[in-house]
């Protein structure tokens, strides 16, 4: 299938796997390799990564600044759905992969490449996410998945190969974490984390301080939404990238957004991952708070029933599927009235709702009050209860 390949666009991060892949592709296929580097807000020296790709053997390195697009077109749509996989994981990696793959396909078309490649392992979810996106957007493009082809069976063997070929790598045998960083989160897998009983090392974290080391006084932050989309912080309008960046800083300083998860991969394996998602955690809690006073009950309950399915589609890699387009349209419709502001109290790893307000609020104090009022007659509930109890009464 992959015979005669002349030019490949590789999703390149500068890490161990993709650094080795550049050299391996050249040796295996004798092809030209173009490294595509996505700037997803990972705060790395992308110029150094670009130079490393060329030094390792790539004929060219292309850096794509997709920070605003990532937040606007991937993170925020998922936020409107309150998408959380298995109740815990906010899917920072899952949301980034279809965007990277999309940009790879565009780069392949621009460069006249006949194939794309990725560094996802044969055991993980990313191989599915990358390749479903490649196929959805460019059905005829050829795909190379080195982890399913090459002779290496472990990252330890990759480290030895890299050393043999003088390829610098950011991991060691003593600290073999596999990290994925972008503006939304950082994930950690591998090494000691493969033991689900083992506590993660504190010095592993990059975005957040430990809750114990967070300030002794709470921090308050207000997040403004328009139709389910975050648009401002503390009264200041910000672009999607700026808004999430600022919340990452505020949340990180207060120890917000750490989770330790054993999740079910799409391929059928249980996997332990540790994640830092400070800004995303704040946004999810703030979004729910605004929804609580602006969404119709039945619309909210129906949307909530779709969350597991939406999260599965994202996690499994079906971002560019027809069912995802249909589901996103329903989610977008549910957010038409979700406009308002949430106030959050951040304190030592906790993100607590401290207020919510909206110019289109459905919350009616005159109805809900325990004080005397004319807006609601408690006697009306009598017939309502009797009618709803009929089917229960009939079972005796």
Keywords:
single chain, alpha/beta, Rossmann fold, five-stranded parallel beta sheet, 396 residues, 2 domains
In short:
The chain is of the alpha/beta class and 396 residues long.
Q: Which class do the helix and strand fractions yield?
A: alpha/beta
Structural domains: how many: 2
Query: Which superfamily, in CATH terms, is the homologous superfamily of the largest domain?
Result: Argininosuccinate synthetase, chain A, domain 2
Helices and strands, in N-to-C order?
EHEHEHHEHEHEEEEEHEEHHHEEHH
**CATH class of the largest domain, please?**
Alpha Beta
| Sequence of strands across the biggest β-sheet | 3-2-1-4-5
Helix content: 40-55%
Measure the end-to-end span. Answer: 68 Å
Average residue pLDDT: 94
Under CATH, the topology of the largest domain is which? Answer: Argininosuccinate synthetase, chain A, domain 2
Number of helices: 12
Poorly predicted segments: none
How many extended strands? 14
Q: Rg from C-alpha positions?
A: 24 Å
Note the beta-strand portion. 15-25%
* Overall geometry: elongated
Describe this entry's structure for a reader:
The chain is an alpha/beta fold and 396 residues long. It has 2 domains: 7-67 and 95-174, Rossmann fold; 181-357, Argininosuccinate synthetase, chain A, domain 2, CATH 3.90.1260.10. The chain is built from 12 helices and 14 strands. The chain has helices spanning 16-29, 46-56, 67-80, 92-111, 126-137, 155-164, 240-253, 278-294, 297-316, 322-334, 365-368, 380-393; strands at 7-11, 32-39, 60-65, 115-117, 142-144, 178-181, 186-189, 219-226, 229-233, 236-237, 258-264, 270-276, 340-347, 350-357. The strands form 3 sheets. Strands 3-2-1-4-5 form a 5-stranded parallel beta sheet, sandwiched between helices. A 5-stranded antiparallel beta sheet has the order 10-9-8-13-14. It has a 4-stranded antiparallel beta sheet with strand order 6-7-12-11, with no helix packed on it. Helix 1 (16-29) packs across helix 6, helix 4 packs across helix 5 (126-137) and helix 7 (240-253) crosses helix 8 (278-294). The longest helix has 20 residues, at 92-111. The mean pLDDT is 94.
């Amino acid at each position: 299938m992959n015979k005669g390949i002349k030019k490949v666009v590789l999703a390149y991060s500068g890490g161990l796997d993709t650094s080795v892949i550049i050299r391996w592709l050249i040796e295996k296929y004798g092809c030209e390799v173009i490294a595509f580097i996505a700037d997803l807000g990972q705060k790395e020296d992308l110029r150094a990564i670009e130079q490393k790709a060329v030094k390792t053997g790539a004929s060219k390195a292309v850096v794509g600044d997709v920070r605003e697009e990532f937040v606007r077109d991937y993170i925020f749509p998922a936020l409107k759905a309150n998408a959380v996989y298995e109740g815990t994981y906010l899917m920072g990696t899952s949301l980034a992969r279809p965007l990277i793959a999309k940009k790879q396909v565009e780069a392949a078309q621009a460069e006249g490449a006949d194939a794309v490649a990725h560094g996802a392992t044969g055991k993980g979810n990313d191989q599915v996410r990358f390749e479903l996106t490649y196929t959805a957007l460019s059905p005829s493009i050829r795909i190379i998945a080195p982890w399913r082809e090459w002779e290496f069976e472990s990252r330890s063997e990759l480290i030895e190969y890299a050393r043999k070929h003088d390829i610098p790598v950011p991991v060691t045998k003593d600290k073999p974490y596999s990290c994925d960083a972008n503006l939304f989160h950082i994930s950690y897998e591998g090494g000691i984390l493969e033991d689900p009983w083992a506590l993660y090392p504190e010095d592993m974290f990059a975005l957040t301080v430990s809750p114990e080391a967070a300030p002794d006084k709470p921090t308050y932050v207000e997040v403004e939404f328009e139709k389910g989309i975050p648009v401002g912080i503390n009264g200041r309008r910000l672009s999607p990238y700026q808004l999430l960046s600022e919340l990452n800083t505020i949340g990180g300083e207060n120890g917000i957004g750490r989770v330790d998860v054993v999740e079910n991969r799409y391929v059928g394996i249980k996997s332990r991952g540790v994640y830092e998602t400070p800004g995303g955690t704040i946004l999810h809690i703030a979004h729910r708070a605004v929804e609580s006073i602006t969404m119709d009950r039945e619309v909210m309950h129906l949307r909530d029933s779709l969350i597991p399915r939406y999260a599965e589609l994202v996690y499994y890699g079906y971002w560019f599927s027809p069912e995802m387009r249909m589901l996103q349209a329903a989610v977008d419709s549910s957010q038409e009235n979700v406009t308002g502001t949430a106030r959050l109290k951040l304190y030592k790893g906790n993100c607590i709702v401290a207020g919510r307000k909206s110019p289109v609020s459905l919350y009616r104090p005159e109805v809900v009050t325990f004080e005397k009022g004319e807006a609601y007659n408690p006697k009306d509930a009598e017939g309502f209860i009797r009618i709803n109890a009929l089917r229960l009464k009939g079972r005796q």
